Amino acid sequence: MTKQTRRDFLRSTAAVAAVSAWGVPGSASAAGPTLEYKPEEGAELRVLRWRRFVQGEEDQWMANTKKFTEQTGVKVRVDHEGFENIRPKAAVAARVGSGPDVILGWYDDPHQYPDKLLDVSELGEYLGNKYGGWYDVCKKYGKNENKWIAIPLGAVGNALVYRESMVKAAGFDAIPEDTAGFLKLCQALKAKGTPAAFALGHAVLDGNAWVHWLLWSHGGMVSDPKGNVVLDSPETVAALEYSKQLYDTFLPGTLSWQDPSNNKVFFDGQIGLTNNGISVYYAALGSKDPTIHAMATDIHHAHYPVGPVGKPTELPGITQMMAFKYTKYPNAAKAYIQFMMEADQYDPWMEASIGYVSQSLKAYEKNPIWTSDPKHTVYRDSASRMLDNGYNGPLGAASAAVMADYVILDMFASAASGDMSPQEAAKQAAERAKRYYKS
């Protein structure tokens, strides 16, 4: 492996300068801190990323990659996999010490093998200084023991997606902002034959998003800040009791749902409310089926309601770029990651994703995509409202493993369906969590 020296990059003395004012909507000034990595002679990169949710996003990513090759001479091969496959493939690469140079992973995947990843602290600090700072949650995801081990690319927003006509037919003008009112809405939707439905199968994004929201909204959490498992608590039981009431309003079959499942029944008109990214709206907008296309005007988005804890407790999916120590070309890998995060590439990429991916750096809030269509705006706030999946404990191998093992999803599925009482489900989940949170 080639060793990096300080000669391999150039930094300005303005390393702590803040991001410059935005002169043109959707673009940042070139002024501010600079960082340049010099790729190794003959460098080639292999990048593994998740397969598109929005075609334009992937097209722009590939266009940016081509631009990187043209400017640096570094050949880049990009492989695309279903997002469910990224986590196991990344884990295998870390274990065997070979594979893609850069992987776009999920949640706190990097914290499962921090010693296998390149230190990207210089890059993390540079980007934060240049682009208005990282959201706190993104900083927590990207750092391990004060060292940057990954660069948060963005939050794949997950919000409530609903048919406005069905919500109004149920007697509500909008989605209630509290969990008590939200339950009443779901009960009314069921009475009208247009129920809500949320995934309780092993759905990486949609399933994890709503059950973690519900757990945290009632004050439950897997561990305390010291890493002690506190899942078996009255707050967790309260969340599970609420989930049972909510599940009683669902369309049948959600216990086996994967991430694509709610899309189909939503377009079939079987449900009036679910959770998803903005892709449902754009699938309708771009559909050649006149019935589905007409549905786009009726599709709206809302933040998850706030529960008894009195603050937002959302869990969008976060995707991070991580470079592995086994790479033969560490400078080229860092240069590629930096290139994709710079405004000239990031702004058009985010616009091409049409709101599916929201920014991890605060300066990009000003991208015009968030105001070009008011239906986008909910997703702009994903990172500013989200908690990390290890909340309220430390991120690391334990929190990542609990997520990967679907401990929280399984707990809610068992309690909501009646397979276990809320007390039994909380106790069993706590015991499962303790296998990873070892004192």
From TrEMBL:
Keyword check for Signal, yes or no: yes
The protein's location, in the record's own words, is: Periplasm
What's the short name of a Pfam family annotated to this entry? SBP_bac_8
| Keyword list, A-Z | Signal, Transport
GO cellular component term, pick one:
periplasmic space
Locate the coiled-coil region(s) and give their ranges.
Answer: none
Q: Which SUPFAM superfamilies match?
A: Periplasmic binding protein-like II (SSF53850)
InterPro entries reported for this sequence: Bact_solute-bd_prot1, SBP, TAT_signal
Signal sequence coordinates: 1-30
Entry's family note: Belongs to the bacterial solute-binding protein 1 family.
Q: What protein does this entry describe? A: Carbohydrate ABC transporter substrate-binding protein
Organism in which the protein naturally occurs: Pollutimonas harenae
